[in-house]
Amino acid sequence: MAADTFAFKGTFFHTPAYGQLEALRDAVVVIQDGKIARVGNSDDEAALMREFGLSEVRRLKEGQYFVPGFIDTHVHAPQYKFTGTGTDEALMDWLKKYTFPAEGSFRDLDAAHHRYALLVKRFLANGTTTAMYYGSLHLEPNLILVDTIERLGQRAVVGKVNMDRHSPDDYVEATADGIRDAEEFIKYTQGKKCTRIEPCITPRFIPTCTPELMKGLAAVAQKYGTHIQSHISECCGEVNCVREMHPEYASDAAVFEEMGLLTSKTVMAHGTLLSDADIKHLASRGTAVSHCPLSNFFLGDAFFKVNHALSLGLKVGLGTDVAGGIQPSMLSAQRMAVVNSRCLRAHKLAVSGGTIVTPEMEKDVITFKEALWLATVGGAQALNMEDRVGTFAVGKEFDALLVDTNLGGTAGPFDVFEGEDDLQRFEKFINLGDDRNLLEVYVQGKCVKRGDTFELEAAILKSGHDSDRPMAAPTPAEPNAEPTVDLAHQPSSDSPASGEAEEPAAKRSRR
Ligand code: GUN
Ligand code: FE
């Protein structure tokens, strides 16, 4: 048997089409060199074992299922630090008061190293096998983010944030420096030749970027064929600001178009205030929107209409938008997408002033099946990875979550009762489950997390090639932080954070 060939037998849930939940029962799935080599059934088992020289096929227990790994199309990596707090401001003040100071504090590279390990572990533990990350403004911490993702085995698209105006004096860059650093970041990331990690051009949003910066970044994206990400038509404060700054353009979409930033590898977050004409425009460019329902509840002023956008041909993925969205979990994002859709229905009824629910009012409603599609296939489409991930189709890479629905009582987040079938158990997982239900997390056919262990990191530690301290999963916040130090309020300094372990020489050298 080839070392990289193995097989599972059991039930695999996925959503090959929007709204269609398919259960592959008693399926035998063979994984070879990280890819799904065959999907057969019980009858094929013996033949598959012979064909692939397998001495065993691992059987899932009753109540255990595989589901494709979740794809988060919009996360701000440094904002994980304050997620769950700072929920009291509208976007423009929220950026000034919480976000820019927190992101700037990642200049402390020791802190960045430690915090990014916590971030990536948290997301992997919650089943996010792929994330489209915003880093921060400064180049160096972004390199640490990429290193961390590489070490822990996640799949990611990562961007260095660019912003050259309307930003705090200590969190802004000169236009030419920003373009140069964005290119440096791309070279560093592509230079790793890690097939899981792709760089991204990341003009933060229109208000903080000059046309010169945006055009320069578009040229870099074109030169290197990279993804692009930004925020579009997120809320009234942002949209009104852009109208004042760019009265010559009718909408955010028109500005981005002029700057050359709408491509088939672009993901725009939010889009709650996009007009139909804007949506059609983005769709015509192959640009996607990352729907971030929980963030939109806090920072947006409107609802994104998933079904309507899809009907206009737009690619739509799902995002947590940590920390605008306060939960670092794509299970939460799926639930919030359903709730968002039900709010649209309730809103229409309220506007009607009556008690008759019309079919028109139902049009925006999505179920957990559609939400799961958004979190898997929709995300894959948004990131142009549809041929690689999102379903259990032969030829795709095996990014998957082993779900266990057997953890009742205090051991898990929900209980299962007699007579409940696998569909009901799986729906309970989507609606009630959490990281405790995820026994194993696979990326490119590698188990990157099993129980409390992050397998890739554990292997590195065992081989002695990295002197990082092991951390349990999910890792405790800021371990050894004695005495307590609030890193966000530390001046950028070269001294290691109080109580942090000595930094390995390899990491120091980047300064
Ligand atoms: N617009 C510009 N920056 C941000 C950010 O960090 N989060 C959100 N939600 N919107 C933004
Ligand atoms: Fe965002």
Automatic annotation (TrEMBL):
Keyword Zinc: yes
Alphabetical list of Pfam families matching this protein: Amidohydro_1
Reactions accelerated catalytically: guanine + H2O + H(+) = xanthine + NH4(+)
Keywords, sorted A to Z: Hydrolase, Metal-binding, Zinc
Pathway: Purine metabolism; guanine degradation; xanthine from guanine: step 1/1
GO biological process, one term: guanine catabolic process
EC identifiers of the protein: 3.5.4.3
GO cellular component, as recorded: cytosol
InterPro entries in the record: Amidohydro-rel, Guanine_deaminase, Metal-dep_hydrolase_composite, Metal_Hydrolase, Metallo-dep_hydrolases
Domain (Amidohydrolase-related) ranges: 67-448
Segments of this protein annotated with the region Disordered: 465-511
SUPFAM superfamilies, sorted: Composite domain of metallo-dependent hydrolases (SSF51338), Metallo-dependent hydrolases (SSF51556)
Family: Belongs to the metallo-dependent hydrolases superfamily. ATZ/TRZ family.
Function: Catalyzes the hydrolytic deamination of guanine, producing xanthine and ammonia.
Name by which UniProt lists this protein: Guanine deaminase
Organism: Chlamydomonas incerta
